[in-house]
Predict the structure.
Amino acid sequence: MASKQVRAGRFQRGQGVVEFALACSGLFIVLFGIVDFARALYAYDLVASAARIGTRYAIVHGSSCTLTGCPVSATALQSYVQGKVTGINTSQLSVVPTYSTASGCTDPNHQGPNCIVKVTVTYPFQFVLAFNKTWTITSTSQMVISQ
């Protein structure tokens, strides 16, 4: 009877190693998923912040602005926003301003005081664990031009 107990223990020696490997692989997948999701939230926050930064820059660089480079062009706005955002690949950051009329907007190009500027920022976020899955993050900010 004692020989049966020894024999059963001999076959279970590697069981702990296999269970440890399975538990660790599941744990690592969950941990990397959390890190990847945190990266996505970080990129989302940066894109939203970039839209606000671009809108603020556009409202003070309207057609009645006396600074150099006024009114701001779409290219200058994109360069400005890309220079302010750090932590993501800014070469993939798309910044598109849209000017619309409002009551009291008399500027023919709609870049004067009381006109509305809307800045849309788009960024393609690449997940690591999802194997080439891309999430297009878009944020929009809108304000009235002050100068």
About this structure: The beta strands are 94-100, 116-126, 134-144. The helical segments are 2-11, 15-60, 74-84. The chain is about 45% helix and 20% strand.
